[in-house]
Each structure stands twice: as structure tokens, then as C-alpha cells.
Amino acid sequence: xxxxxxxxFAGWWNLPGEWVETPNERRGGWSGMMRARIGDAVYYVKxxxxxxxxxxxxxxxxxxxxREHANVRRLQALGVGTPEVVFNGVxxxxxxxxxxxxxxELQGYADLAAQQGLSAEQKxxxxxxxxxxxxxxxxxxxxxxxxxxxxxxVRWAGETPEVAxxxxxxxxxxxxxxxxARHDLDQLRRHQQLWNESEWTVLLAAHAAxx
Length: 211
What we know:
By secondary structure, this protein is α+β, with helices and mostly antiparallel strands. It has helices at residues 9-13, 64-77, 120-139, 179-191, 197-209; strands at residues 18-26, 29-38, 41-49, 52-53, 62-63, 84-93, 96-104, 110-111, 152-157, 160-165. A hairpin with a 2-residue loop joins strand 6 (84-93) and strand 7 (96-104). Helix 3 packs parallel to helix 5 (197-209). The radius of gyration is 18 Å and the shape is globular.
């Protein structure tokens, strides 16, 4: 494979790689994720066909890859860590709409579920970092909607945790914005197995103090 990045929609759409999320049918179309190595870097290529969402701007539907790209940019503007977007594109095909979203691997990161063997102090630091990050998102009235431990990525710089969020396709402003925090925090609490009750209290305090 060439070390040069594809420059257009067709190049990314036809790029060979390994499926990490086998295409599955939903929303009347299909969506899947591939992993591809180009040079020394790894890229995640989300491909969709007729996997659409509808708004007043797109009453007939538009690929959810484009919405996810907008969500990444929205979080980046808030200073919330996300994967770097390399390419985003939509193309009409003979039987509908295709979407591609390419992100660069978060190098050195592992998900929250993989944070094993941490000291009590490290777990508290991580709780503070996650609480502050998620709190910043919620202050902007944004709801992740799929805040599982596998969607919170962590990289340690010495004893300091750096945190990023992934799987942003469902990020939204709910009809009742005050419910965003309740929904996401309840969801994370049910799915995480890292923190005990006192450490979860540290996360909530950092969340409440986030700006």
C-alpha cells in the first residue's frame, strides 16, 4: 500500500483495510468501520450507504458520517479531546447516498475499560479528568448519548491522564438540555467498573465544577 493518503472520496472508499466494525444494516442502509495503516499511522475509515438522519435542512436524509464530523468540530471548539478528522465526504451513488469519515488513531490511548492496575491516587486523578471533560460538554448542553467506558479514551503523560471521547455519531442537544448530564452520567455509571463510590463522588465534583 502507498504511504500517500488518498485525496478524494473514491480513494478512501476503495482503500483496503480490516473491518473492525462489520457493516450492519440499520436506518435503511448500512454502516461499518475499517482500520487501515498508511505509512506509520493508523486510520479509521467509517463507510456508510443510505445510513441517514433527517433534519429540516435534509428532510430526505443525509449520511450520519457528516453529522459525526460536525460533532467532532463542536467538541474540539470546546477543548474536548477527540480523534483528528482526516477526511469527510458525501457522494451520491446510483441508489442513494454514500458517506465516508476518516479519523486518525488516538496514538497511545486505551479505553476506560482497559485502565487496570491503577493506584488509588491514579484512579482519583482519572475520575477528576473525566468528570471535568464530560462536564465541559454538558455545560454546552450537549449529550453524548452513548457514554460507555469503551468510548472514553485515556493516555497517561506520566501521572497525568489525558482524556478524549469517541463514537460521536449520536451526540446531540436534547429537547430538555438539563437531561443531558443525567442521561450520560447514569449511563456511564452503569457501564464502568473502574471507580468505587468514593471515586465516583470525585468525578461528580469535577463535573459540577467544570467550566
